[in-house]
Amino acid sequence: MSSEDRKAYEGHNERTDRGEHTEYDVVVVGGGPGGSTLAALVAMQGHRVLILEKETFPRYQIGESLLPSTIHGVCKLTGVSEKLAAAGFTPKKGGTFRWGANPEPWTFSFSVSPKIAGATSHAYQVERSKFDSILLEHAVEKGAEVRFQAAVSDVIEDSERVTGVRYTDAGGVEHEVRATYVVDASGNGSRLHKRVGGTREYSQFFRSLALFGYFRGGKRLPAPNSGNILSVAFSSGWFWYIPLTPDLTSVGAVVRRENADKVQGDPEQALRALIDECPMIKDYLADATRVTDGQYGQLRVRKDYSYHQTSFWRPGLVLIGDAACFVDPVFSSGVHLATYSALLAARSIGSTLAGLVSEEAAFTEFEARYRREYGVFYEFLMSFYDMHVDENSYFWSAKKVTRNQHTELESFVELVAGISSSEFDLDGAESAALRMKSKSAEFVSAIEEMSTDSEGNMTPLFRSSAVRQAMQEGAQVQSRAFLGEDLGPDVPMFPGGLITSDDGMLWQPGPA
């Protein structure tokens, strides 16, 4: 972080210590991608925004593989995409998988064909300490204020409405800040998510643990896919292999909670044993050394990969990103969901403050769209897991979508219940199982067809309904960010729902 920005942050803190600036339009709890994106979007509309971040940036974070919709859609709207392009992050054209019945790795590219690859058919692999700092500094440039080492302890309520937060600074002094809206963007460890109401429901299907670390000197995929994330299934689970720089690689093993013994004890020995189980990853790391110092020197464990809060908002408080929900990372959806939900919530806040639509209508639209996008990726990933063939592995036999997984599939139906869309026309667990089985079969067929195409054509995968759904909304955000009013008027996503303004920043009433 630059010395000029640091002075600006310190100046904000000094003014606060003198008793100034204790009321805002929006207080954002957490300065990660979701919080920074929302803060920038709302500040760009002229509203007063404060970000409270419990740590000091730059800081370590996982979630390093991005999707194009974040870079070319949401970040285009905030104006930070050019800074990201200049940051030197590793370009990511797609993902390469050793997954399914095919013994050879296969590749999913963001472009339909290498011959017609466009300017937006890539994303980045990012060092999150650097990426998050760029987004946060950009939010400050757009007018947001930031206070570091500000640990939010609770919300302030007035009757049924949240009206602010309490936080403790680095010196242990407690402060109160009032706001029209509080946005919880504090991640999976959120202390505020319970205050929105409802409960946090954990998936049994994606009930996993990840053990991960960083290596120097690992191999790379052949060009032009050398920047792709590599996901490799093996008997105990799967590995991610993310090329952050030409020399630095993020490597993690995902196993079921029931196999927690595989990641317990000495983490160094545990990770090495898992690598030994997976020939492809072992080969890629044959000449590599694990990083043992700095922000990447620690082996880490992450658990309970997938969950959702049954309510995403209440008057004065809204959850975005991992505070609201998270789904298994095999398709790199974490930062996409965080920034997409930030865009939806920013539209709702801005539209309500501007008096364009009612609060109820704005945040009902936010929750319905966010829940739909989470449901799309949830269904996509259940179908994706189901296509892998390894009946001798407990991990993979437990990942088969069958009618016996009744509770999990009922939970999925409840997750998307109330979303009036033909995409989620489900009437129970058995219909969900049949649909996911069908989508899994589509994956298998598409990969088999691709394996015989020497041109690298992605058309078979893009014909798959699961892939189309997973890419659909992100592509729409990208199109709106680039084309604006030239894209033409939006149409409601749900009957009677709201539409997006031409610039993509606000909600408007749908056609009568």
UniProtKB/TrEMBL annotation:
The keyword Kinase belongs to this UniProt entry's keyword annotation: no
Database matches in SUPFAM superfamilies: FAD/NAD(P)-binding domain (SSF51905)
Spans annotated as Disordered: 1-22
A Pfam family this chain is assigned to: Trp_halogenase
Top-level taxon in the UniProt lineage: Bacteria
Keywords: Monooxygenase, Oxidoreductase
Family that this chain belongs to: Belongs to the flavin-dependent halogenase family. Bacterial tryptophan halogenase subfamily.
Record-given protein name: Tryptophan 7-halogenase
Species name: Streptomyces luomodiensis
Source lineage: Bacteria, Bacillati, Actinomycetota, Actinomycetes, Kitasatosporales
